[in-house]
């Protein structure tokens, strides 16, 4: 099962920043990721002022704007970008905001498909095979005993 | 078993709140996961000029914390609609028109992933197989007893 949650943070003013990081938890075998779906300018933002959101990822050492917003021109953008297994920082490098960042966090602890299920079936089949191997022997013994018994009965 | 449904609500000054909850399901099913995806939020033609319409969402962001944050800011003459494409997995969400008179339409879809109580049936099949094996073994002991009697 993957742990998924809505992600929503606010950059409140010039130079404010927010960080997301992976949780150091061994249970998340398939990794953790942050997906950014929308970056939105608040109603209080100043007219004609550019608001620029820059992202910095530690793993890839990338620092680049991912949103340029301006009241009266671009109220929101839909990046649909993903950040996998890396610490990420969002910073309002220009403008006074507020800017809202929306997305979701996905922490996947689904274990890789293993061959155990097939092995279990084989075990059941093996048990069946064992029984079949034993039964002929048992049958042979039983038949021998039965013959012996019948022979004695006949003698009497 | 997967189920999808269209989600559409209207927010206005008179009815500013819409609540989405984990749906109730019949007893034979269990919920594996469910998710609400908001695809589009937009202003009706009657919306007033010069007024900001702000939709806020309130939902859980972890097992312990909830957040209230605007997810749409609309204004006649500037932004008629937005396509947030945001997802709300596994929890309740409350949408509220915290600014403006609307009407604001919120559309998307609700996905539901259910499991039937098939798991119980699968285990019953295995136990039936084991039962047949046991029956076979039960047939053997009486004959073995016959054998031991014969020795005496």
UniProtKB/TrEMBL annotation, chain A:
Residues 104-156 are annotated as: Disordered. It is found in: Nucleus. Residues 6-105 form the Nucleoplasmin core domain. Residues 111-134 have a biased composition (Acidic residues). Transmembrane segments: none annotated. Keywords: Nucleus. Residues 135-150 have a biased composition (Basic and acidic residues). One of its GO terms (cellular component) is cytoplasm. GO terms for biological process: chromatin remodeling. GO terms for molecular function: chromatin binding; histone binding; RNA binding. The keyword Translocase does not apply. Belongs to the nucleoplasmin family. This is Nucleoplasmin-like protein.
Automatic annotation (TrEMBL), chain B:
GO terms for molecular function: chromatin binding; histone binding; RNA binding. Residues 127-140 have a biased composition (Acidic residues). Residues 127-152 are annotated as: Disordered. Keywords: Nucleus. Its main location: nucleus. Residues 6-110 form the Nucleoplasmin core domain. Gene3D superfamilies: Nucleoplasmin core domain (2.60.120.340). GO terms for biological process: chromatin remodeling. Residues 142-152 have a biased composition (Polar residues). It is found in: Nucleus. InterPro entries: Nucleoplasmin, Nucleoplasmin_core_dom, Nucleoplasmin_core_dom_sf. GO terms for cellular component: cytoplasm; nucleolus; nucleoplasm. It comes from the Eukaryota. Belongs to the nucleoplasmin family. This is Nucleoplasmin-like protein.
């Amino acid at each position: 099962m993957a742990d998924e949650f809505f992600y929503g943070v606010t950059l409140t003013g010039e130079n404010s920043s927010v960080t997301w990081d992976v949780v150091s938890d061994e249970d998340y075998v398939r990794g953790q990721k942050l997906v950014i779906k929308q970056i939105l300018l608040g109603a209080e933002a100043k007219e004609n002022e550019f608001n620029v959101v820059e992202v910095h990822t530690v793993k890839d050492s990338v620092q680049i704007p991912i949103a340029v917003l301006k009241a009266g021109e671009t109220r929101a953008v839909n990046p649909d970008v993903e950040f996998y297994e890396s610490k990420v920082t969002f910073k309002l490098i220009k403008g006074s905001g507020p800017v809202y960042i929306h997305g979701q966090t996905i922490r996947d602890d689904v274990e890789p498909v293993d061959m155990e299920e097939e092995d279990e079936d084989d075990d059941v089949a093996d048990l069946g095979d064992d029984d079949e191997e034993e039964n002929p022997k048992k049958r042979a013994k039983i038949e021998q005993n039965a013959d012996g018994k019948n022979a004695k009965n006949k003698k009497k | 078993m997967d189920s999808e449904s269209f989600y559409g609500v209207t927010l206005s000054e008179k009815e500013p709140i819409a609540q989405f909850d984990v749906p109730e399901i019949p007893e034979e099913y269990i919920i594996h996961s469910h998710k609400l995806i908001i695809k589009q939020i937009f202003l009706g033609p009657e919306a007033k000029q010069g007024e900001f319409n702000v939709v806020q969402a309130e939902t859980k962001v972890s097992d312990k914390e909830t957040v209230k944050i605007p997810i749409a800011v609309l204004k006649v003459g500037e932004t008629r609609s937005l396509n947030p494409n945001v997802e709300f997995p596994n929890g309740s969400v409350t949408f509220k028109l915290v600014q403006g008179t609307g009407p604001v339409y919120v559309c998307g879809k609700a996905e539901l992933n259910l499991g039937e109580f098939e798991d119980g049936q699968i285990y019953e099949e295995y136990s039936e197989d084991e039962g047949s094996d046991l029956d076979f073994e039960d047939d053997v002991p009486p004959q073995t007893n016959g054998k031991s009697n014969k020795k005496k």
